[in-house]
Structure formats: C-alpha cells, structure tokens
Amino acid sequence: MSTRLIVNADDFGLSPGVNRGIVAAHRGGIVTSASIMVTGPAFAHAVALAREHPTLDLGVHLTLTELAPLAPPEAVRSLVDEAGRFAPHATAFARRYLRGSIALAEIRDELDAQIRLARAHGLAISHLDSHQHVHALPGVARVVAELAKTHGIRAVRYPLERLDARLLALARNARRLAEHVALNAVCLCSPLRRVRRTERFVGFHVGGRLTERNLEAMLRRLPARATVELMCHPSEAEADGPHRRWGYAGPAERAALTSGRIRALIGARGIQLIGHRDL
Known about the structure:
- This protein is α/β, with parallel strands linked by helices.
- The mean pLDDT is about 95.
- Strands 1, 2, 3, 4, 5, 6, 7 and 8 form an eight-stranded parallel sheet that branches.
- It has a single domain (about 5-279), classed as Alpha-Beta Barrel (TIM Barrel), CATH 3.20.20.
- It has eleven helices and eight strands.
- About 45% of the residues are buried.
C-alpha cells in the first residue's frame, strides 16, 4: 500500500481568477479536488467550470466568515453584523462563538442551505470543509458531522497538521504558527476525529504561500503508507483579487502544483493521487 494523496484547492467560487487557477492546476498539475464556496461572488462561474471538468472532485467550502449568508440576515441574526455580513475572520467568529453569542440552530440552517444549493446545481459533493476552518470548533463540528450524514456526504476535513520544525523554518511566519497551534488544539477537542476523513492533513502552515520548495519538502515528509489531504490555494493573477488582498501568492501556488519536477517526485515516491470520493 502506497501513500494516497488528495490535493484539495480551497475557495473555488471566490473569484474568476481563483476558479481558473484551480482548474489549471487540475488540468495540468496535481490538484485532484476543490471545495466550492456557494456564497462566493464567482459561484456560477465555478459551477460552469466544474461541469466542464467532471474529473475534479468537489466538496462544499462551508462559509461563516468574511462573506454574506445565503439566508436573509434577519434569519441568522447571530451570525452577521449590522451590514448583514459574517464576522471578518475566524478569530472574530471564534470569540463570539465562545462567548455564546452565536446560535447553533442558525449555523445549522445556514450551512444546510449552502449544501442544498450546491446539490441543486447538480454537483456531486464528496466532502465538506470550511473557510478558515471554523467547522472544527466543537459545537460547529457536531452540526457539520450531522449534515454530512443527512446529505450522504462521504468525508469531512479534519485540519490537524503535525508541527514539523524543518517545514516551519521554510514558512517563517509567527502569526501563522500561533494560528496553527490554536487550530490543532481545537481539533483535538473536535468530534471530527470520529468521522470519515484522511489520516493526515498538511498545508495549513504554508497556506497561501505554497511554493515549489516547501511543496517538495512536504511531499518528501509524507508517511510511506497513509491517506493524506494537502490543502492549497492556486489562482491566476488578479489586480484586486481576494487572494492578493490576503497576501496569498496564488500564481506561485499554481506554478508549484503544475511543476514537472513535483509530478516527477510524486511518481518516484509512488504516491497515488485520489479524491475524497475515493476514500
């Protein structure tokens, strides 16, 4: 048995440049799977591309931060601000959630609506994950696990990534390290440990900054026999695209994911590229 690797691109539907970058990394590279944001401004564009590329495995990138809800703001009042938008970042969402200011029933209704919209467009959904990993919070995770069962969705991301000093040295980002440690702590308390998932997860610490160098380092450190999900964020260059505003290097990620040297390394190591639908 060899390593089985899912290379999942997040944020499908966020912008046309993100969508095109994901498809390019699938057609010409190692991306096998993508997570679609049904609340994203370019959702319709992503749906059209998904229909043109049925080999791209699809999940729903459940969204409770940054964007606006599907539901009317008055129906999910605890999830939105006065402008009817979600919390601007996962840290703000987590603070409100831990204070008890967010209603789980509203989370369930909103996330159920997001899954139903993806399925209404005829998309075969194999897995669930979330924007900024808020689905890993214990109460939210329980809701997501129940929704996966209700909708017959095969797998849910468990975003616990082992700390590796050599890999951390490549990223050199103290804030990301702090977020990494916090996410791992949340995951250890999360019921997602007990749902169908990959055995390992990698890519959080270099999220938005995946280069050929650190991708090669991650691939060389994969266990010899395991099922692993690698998270990535490829995109095309956009003058004012969301990934650029976040400081993400989407075009560099796309280049790394389509590198001939990376594909050769995967072949040399006997790594099998799969999707969540193969779990």
